[in-house]
Description:
Blueprint: H1 5-24, H2 30-37, H3 41-47, H4 51-70, H5 73-76, H6 80-91, H7 95-102, H8 104-107, H9 112-134, H10 144-165, H11 169-184
Helix pairs in contact: 1-2, 1-4, 1-7, 4-7, 4-9, 6-11, 7-10, 9-10, 10-11
Amino acid sequence: xxxxxxxxxxxxxxxxxxxxxxxxxxxxxxxxxxxxxxxxxxxxxxxxxxxxxxxxxxxxxxxxxxxxxxxxxxxxxxxxxxxxxxxxxxxxxxxxxxxxxxxxxxxxxxxxxxxxxxxxxxxxxxxxxxxxxxxxxxxxxxxxxxxxxxxxxxxxxxxxxxxxxxxxxxxxxxxxxxxxxxxxxxx
Length: 187
């Protein structure tokens, strides 16, 4: 089945406009999103029947951006600690996507497809943490859930550094990894 390129272009424009505007104002109207995207309201409502549908599409876009960014880690990483370093380095530039995903609970906490992807990504990170513990690169006494939450907290800290203190994504990633490695390496 062939997909109309105009539909794809409109969907992409709406998702990117929604990401930008919703990050600035969670109460933004769909009309404002359509205007920012350069798409008519009729097209918007044909593609996304509700704000919730657009939010789901934006969330899926954000999660896919993380998936694409982290894809090379398996091939590039020379150790589990290097994998964590690459994780921060490759995903820290995704500040808009991070901000949106951090605020997703504001909109909806029960989007099955989004929740499934987040659970899968968390499971992959959990497995990496466990692998690093087994390799002796992470302190074994630290609960895996603690390390997982530490990583999420460092993403938030990196986002704040970029948004409020004009740090580059590279600087924020380096700070996050430095903080991470000092906090979790065996004593």
